[in-house]
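Sequence, please.
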C-alpha cells in the first residue's frame, strides 16, 4: 500500500503535488477499476432487462443518440486538450522560459487584489506567496488592495511589512465607498488609470484567498513579451476545502473538468472565462472607460426583469469586454494556486448557492456573447457557448426518458439504464483522473449528480437572471422583491415559466414514449364541437 496516495491537503504555501503515474495508477487502483467494470458487466447480464426488446427501440435510440452526441463532444474536448497540453503549450512554455532566462523582466508588477473578511492565516499565506513571486522577479511592485474594512487592511499591511521588508513593494489601499467586489475593482482600475499605466504594463487580477504556487509570475509574464496580440491569460486552480469531505471531492472533480475544458478552449486562442482567482491582463483595455464601467455597473436588459446590474461574475465581464474586441486569450496550465474554501454551515446549501451563482453568471453573459456571432470569435468558441445552452436540456431529457421507459417496460429497463450511467460515468472519470491530483472514485457519482443538479439549476435560473446572491461577500443579495404589483407579477411569471419549462420536457418524454397519446385533429374537433 502506498501511503502517499492518501495524503490530501497541501500546506497553504505549497502547491498540491500530483502523484507520479505509478502511484496514481497503482495496482490497487487498477484492481478497483477492473472490479468496478466486472460488477457492472455481471449486473447487466444477471439483471432482467428489456433493453433489447423491440418495443424499447425508441428509448434506446434516443438515449443512445444523445449519449453519442455528448460523448463525442467530450472526446473532441479531450483530444484538443491533449494537443494543447502536449504540443502547443510546451512550445509556448519553452520559448517563454528562454525569454525569462535571457534576463527579460516586466518594468513593474501591478497586482489588483480584493479582500473581504478573510481568515488571518489565509491572508498571510497569500501575502507570503505574493512576496515570494515578486522577490523571484526582482522588479518593483505595487499591490493595489481593494477593501471595505480597516481590519483587513491592517492585517495585510502588517504581514507585508514583516515578510516583504527586503522588497521594493508599495501597498496602495483603495477603500471602497459602496459594497461589492465589482465596486472595489472599478475603484482600483480608476486609481491605476490616474497613475498612468502604459498599454504595455501588465496587471494581475487576484482574489485575497488565492495562494500562489511558485513560478506563477515567471511562467505567465513572458508569454506577453512573446506575443504582442495576447491581452489576457488565466491559470490553473486547486482547492482546499475546510468543510465536508464530499465537497472536496466535488470541487476536485469540477477543477479537473475545468483543466480539460480550458486547454481545449485555449487551442483556439480564447477561453470562456478569465477567472478572478488569478488572471493577468495587458493594460491596453483594462484602464479604458468601457472596461471599468463593465466592472462596476455591468447590466442586462431583460424582458421580464427590466434593467438590472450584475452582482457577481466580474470575471465574465472582463472576458466579455475582451471577447468583444476580438483579442487573444490563453490558459497557462502549469501556473497555479490554491483557493481555500471555508465552508461554514450546510455544505449542500453552499454547493447549491455556488451552482446558482456560477449558472447565473454563465446565462447572463453567454447569451450576449453568442449574439456577437461566430465572426467575432473562433467558430469553436462560439459553438461552445451554444452548447452550454443545449446541454442543460439534453442532460434532463435522458433520465426522464429512462423513467418513462421503466414505467412502460418495467424496472428491468431502468436497471439497464443505471448500469449504463455507471459505465459511462466511470469512462468519463478515467479521463478526469488524468487531470486530477489523484484517483478519487467519488468522481463517478459526483459527476452525474453535478450534471443533473447543474442542469436543473440552469433551467431554474434561466427565468430568474436578476435574482443574485453571493454568500462569500457578506451575503449580498440582489433582485426584485417586495409587495408591489409588478414584483408579485414578476415572481409569479418566473414560477410559471419554470413550471412550463420542466412540464414541456416531461410532456415531450411521455408523448415520445407513448405513455400518453396526443389527440388527433378529428378528436380535437369532436371535443370542441366543431
Amino acid at each position: 500500500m502506498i501511503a502517499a496516495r492518501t495524503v490530501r491537503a497541501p500546506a497553504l504555501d505549497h502547491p498540491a503535488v500530483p502523484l507520479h503515474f505509478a502511484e496514481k495508477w497503482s495496482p490497487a487502483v487498477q484492481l478497483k477499476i477492473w472490479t468496478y467494470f466486472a460488477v457492472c458487466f455481471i449486473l447487466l447480464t444477471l439483471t432482467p432487462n428489456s433493453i433489447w426488446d423491440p418495443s424499447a427501440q425508441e428509448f434506446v435510440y434516443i438515449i443512445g443518440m444523445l449519449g453519442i452526441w455528448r460523448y463525442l463532444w467530450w472526446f473532441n474536448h479531450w483530444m484538443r486538450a491533449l494537443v494543447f497540453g502536449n504540443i502547443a503549450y510546451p512550445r509556448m512554455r519553452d520559448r517563454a522560459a528562454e525569454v525569462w532566462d535571457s534576463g527579460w523582466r516586466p518594468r513593474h508588477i501591478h497586482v489588483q487584489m480584493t479582500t473581504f473578511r478573510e481568515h488571518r492565516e489565509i491572508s498571510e499565506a497569500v501575502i507570503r506567496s505574493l512576496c515570494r513571486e515578486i522577490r523571484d522577479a526582482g522588479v518593483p511592485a505595487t499591490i493595489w488592495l481593494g477593501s471595505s474594512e480597516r481590519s483587513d487592511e491592517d492585517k495585510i499591511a502588517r504581514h507585508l511589512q514583516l515578510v516583504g521588508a527586503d522588497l521594493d513593494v508599495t501597498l496602495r489601499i483603495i477603500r471602497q465607498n459602496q459594497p461589492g467586489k465589482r465596486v472595489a475593482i472599478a475603484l482600483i482600475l480608476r486609481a491605476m488609470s490616474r497613475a498612468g499605466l502604459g498599454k504595455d504594463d501588465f496587471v494581475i487580477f487576484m482574489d485575497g484567498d488565492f495562494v500562489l504556487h511558485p513560478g506563477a509570475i515567471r511562467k505567465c509574464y513572458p508569454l506577453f513579451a512573446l506575443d504582442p496580440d495576447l491581452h489576457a491569460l488565466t491559470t490553473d486552480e486547486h482547492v482546499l476545502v475546510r468543510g465536508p469531505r464530499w465537497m472536496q471531492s466535488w470541487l476536485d472533480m469540477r477543477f479537473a473538468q475545468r483543466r480539460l475544458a480550458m486547454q481545449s478552449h485555449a487551442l483556439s486562442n480564447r477561453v470562456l472565462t478569465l477567472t478572478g482567482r488569478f488572471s493577468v491582463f495587458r493594460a491596453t483595455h483594462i484602464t479604458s472607460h468601457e472596461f471599468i464601467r463593465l466592472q462596476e455597473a455591468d447590466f442586462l436588459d431583460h424582458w421580464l426583469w427590466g434593467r438590472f446590474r450584475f452582482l457577481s461574475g466580474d470575471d465574465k465581464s472582463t472576458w466579455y469586454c475582451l471577447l468583444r474586441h476580438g483579442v487573444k486569450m490563453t490558459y497557462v496550465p502549469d501556473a497555479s494556486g490554491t483557493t481555500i474554501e471555508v465552508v461554514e454551515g450546510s455544505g449542500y446549501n453552499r454547493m447549491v448557492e455556488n451552482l446558482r451563482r456560477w449558472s447565473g453568471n454563465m446565462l447572463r453573459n453567454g447569451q450576449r456573447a453568442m449574439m456577437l456571432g461566430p465572426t467575432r470569435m473562433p467558430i469553436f468558441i462560439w459553438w461552445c457557448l451554444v452548447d452550454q445552452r443545449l446541454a442543460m436540456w439534453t442532460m434532463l431529457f435522458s433520465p426522464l426518458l429512462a423513467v418513462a421507459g421503466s414505467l412502460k417496460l418495467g424496472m428491468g429497463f431502468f436497471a439497464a439504464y443505471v448500469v449504463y450511467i455507471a459505465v459511462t460515468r466511470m469512462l468519463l472519470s478515467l479521463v478526469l483522473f488524468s487531470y486530477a491530483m489523484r484517483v478519487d472514485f467519488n468522481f463517478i457519482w459526483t459527476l452525474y449528480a453535478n450534471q443533473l443538479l447543474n442542469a436543473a439549476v440552469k433551467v431554474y435560473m434561466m427565468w430568474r437572471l436578476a435574482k443574485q446572491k453571493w454568500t462569500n461577500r457578506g451575503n449580498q443579495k440582489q433582485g426584485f422583491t417586495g409587495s408591489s404589483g409588478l414584483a408579485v407579477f414578476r415572481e409569479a411569471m418566473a414560477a410559471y415559466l419554470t413550471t412550463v419549462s420542466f412540464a414541456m420536457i416531461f410532456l415531450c418524454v411521455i408523448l415520445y414514449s407513448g405513455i400518453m397519446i396526443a389527440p388527433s385533429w378529428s378528436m380535437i374537433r369532436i371535443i370542441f364541437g366543431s
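Residues 57-101 form the longest helix (45 residues).
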